[in-house]
Design goal:
Length: about 120
């Protein structure tokens, strides 16, 4: 298996950047489009466990658009072959807490999509 093929890694980096821009801009349509449209999609958040695209969509629609600004650091994107990737990043909204975000991406017929995601927040050390 080939790891981090330059063209594939660039595609996933672009998809990840589009996700981040949509997240801080509360672009719900783009966020929804970047997740796999399946009942098998999972998103574990800081206060919710979402199973399937319908639950993820409902969460996104109800989420407050306030307080979404953040910075990221230590982002690592790793691709495996041409159709599978992981993205991990730390995010920061306050000096005393650090968020952790991990996403599993898969190439689908309509492009790269998040098929599983996990978000958590811990005390900064």
């Amino acid at each position: 298996m080939q790891i981090n093929l330059p063209d594939v890694k660039a595609e996933v980096e672009a998809a990840f950047a589009a996700y981040e821009a949509a997240l801080v801009g509360n672009d719900v349509d783009t966020l929804q489009a970047l997740f796999w449209d399946s009942g098998l999609t999972i998103r574990y958040g800081t206060g919710e466990n979402l199973y399937g695209i319908a639950e993820i969509a409902a969460f996104r629609a109800a989420r407050s658009p306030l307080g979404l600004a953040r910075t990221t650091s230590r982002t690592v994107i790793t691709t495996f072959g041409r159709d599978f990737a992981t993205a991990s990043t730390l995010f920061h909204r306050s000096p005393d807490r650090v968020g952790r975000q991990m996403q599993t991406w898969a190439r689908m017929p309509d492009g790269w999509r998040v098929v599983a995601a996990h978000v958590s927040v811990i005390d900064a050390t």
